[in-house]
Every structure is written in structure tokens, then in C-alpha cells.
Specification:
By secondary structure, the chain is of the alpha/beta class. Helices cover 33% and strands 19% of the residues. The protein has five helices and six strands, in the order αβαβαβαβαββ.
Length: 167
Amino acid sequence: MFLLIALLTACATEKQGPAIGADAAGDVVVYAIRHMEKETTPGDQDPALTDVGTDRAQTLATFLTDIELAAAYSTPYKRTIGTIEPTADVHGLEIDTTWDGTTQLAAHILATHDGETVISSGHSNTVPALIAGLGADAPIIEESSYGEMWVVTVTDGVATAVLTPFE
């Protein structure tokens, strides 16, 4: 029984309700989301979101309205920026697209957002890398899975990542 409880407690990939955000000095919370549905125009290396993706981005903004966000990060693509732009607008945040990799972004977040909550938008390969860089087990995000949101909480150097539905 003890092993079962320990296993369930340690499991970081179960679905649960919304996290509140950083609630103690030193906690860092990152809403790491894979971009929403993108256009599939052949040859377009920087597609925008579809209408469905745009609607889901607005749903995300509504979901996160009451979460105090300190910063917004995204890869420099239309689909990732479009995914968190409504959320950033609600919170009066500029989207920082200047970071040059997930390891660097994770280090930056941990060094500069002590006690804060941030959002980051990326891809099926960069979101897991960011989560791993923050110290949690990297999930596998399928190429066909849009809008997966992982809430990563880092407390006293220990990170957990929880797949969190927003719809």
C-alpha cells in the first residue's frame, strides 16, 4: 500500500485541475504549452494558427485570467506566439522570443523568476526539453497533439510536471 501511495504521489503525468501558480517564495511555476492547431500550407515554414487554434488560444487566455503571470516566452514562430498572445494581452505582458534554446530558457526562468509564474509556448520537441531543463521528467508530445499544457512547479530545486487540461 505504501509503495502504491508513493508511486501515485510521484507520478507527474496525470491530469488534474488548474494549478494556482507560485504560492511561496522560491517556487517557480511554468505553464509550458505546445502550440495550438496550425495551418498546413505546403512549403510554409512559419504557419499561423487555424481558426480552431485561434479559438483554443482564447480559451487558454480565459482559463489563465486569474493566474498572476510575470512573463511570457515563446519560440519566434507565428503559431507559438499566437498560442499565448491572448494570454499575454490579458496580463499586459510582452512575449519574449529572444531566448536561444530550451536549456538557456530553463536556466533563465529559474534564475530570474523566483516565486513567480510564467508561461512558455513551444513545439512537440521544445516543450519536453524545457520541462527537462527545469528538472522534471520530459513528457513525450506527439506531433498530432496540439495545445498540450504542462504545469511545471519547482520547489526547493525539485520539479514536477503535470499535464493540465484547460478546456
